[in-house]
UniProtKB/TrEMBL annotation:
Cofactor (UniProt): Zn(2+)
SUPFAM superfamilies: beta-carbonic anhydrase, cab (SSF53056)
Organism classification: Archaea, Promethearchaeati, Promethearchaeota, Promethearchaeia, Promethearchaeales
Keyword Zinc applies: yes
Gene3D superfamilies attached to this UniProt entry: Carbonic anhydrase
Family the UniProt entry places it in: Belongs to the beta-class carbonic anhydrase family.
Protein name from the UniProt record: Carbonic anhydrase
UniProt keywords, alphabetically: Metal-binding, Zinc
One Pfam family matching this protein: Pro_CA
Length: 193
């Protein structure tokens, strides 16, 4: 029915979760292979989606110390991701910044009224209004939803946004080269676009 991954019940307790994670961590201690002193040795930042099927370090077979990884829902270039991009390039010497989108992204629902309505039924209209007024944006824009199948376009939009933010704030010599790529959830293949 499911792939070979662990599933927990909705009723899982905090203690059970901690036990599961710590059990795995104890195994990791013996497997850990990588740096505990050098940070970002591939001089590359990857911005990807929170989707748990996009394990960036595993996709590129990166060891601890090699890749700098940022994640949020929809791999969006938000203010905080920009902050981290600057830290990575200015302080950690990152030369490349990859916006890594992926196929079948759950944030690609902007042109799907059924999915948008579903969110509105889970979050009350009052809460949606609060989110909108707090962010001073249309709430759909604030969430960062994009159109179905437009993973490439979204990655391009986010890359352009980063370039604009960099151009507005720091000199060229501090700017990483921005790349765009898509991860295919099913095949596991990465394609630069
Ligand atoms: Zn996603």
């Amino acid at each position: 029915m499911f792939e070979n991954i662990e599933h927990v019940a909705d009723t899982i307790t905090e203690k059970e979760l901690k036990n599961l994670l710590l059990h795995r961590n104890r195994q990791w201690i013996y497997k850990k292979d990588g740096s505990s002193s050098v940070n970002g040795s591939l001089k590359t930042v990857v911005l990807s989606c929170i989707d748990s099927r996009v394990p960036v370090e595993k996709i590129f077979q990166a060891k601890p110390g090699e890749l700098l990884v940022l994640k949020n829902a929809g791999n969006l270039m938000t203010d905080d991701m920009f902050r981290s991009a600057l830290v990575a390039s200015v302080e950690l010497g990152a030369k490349f910044f990859i916006v890594l989108g992926h196929t079948r992204c759950g944030m690609a629902i902007k042109n799907n009224p059924a999915k948008i309505d579903h969110i509105a039924t889970k979050i009350s209209q009052e809460s949606l209004n609060k989110l909108a007024s707090r962010s001073k944006k249309d709430v759909i824009e604030w969430f960062g939803f994009f159109n179905q199948n437009e993973w490439n376009e979204n990655a391009t939009t986010q890359a352009e946004k980063l370039q604009k933010l960099l151009d507005e704030t720091v000199s060229k010599d501090l700017q990483p080269t921005i790349l765009k790529a898509i991860y295919d959830l099913d095949s596991g293949e990465v394609t630069f676009i």
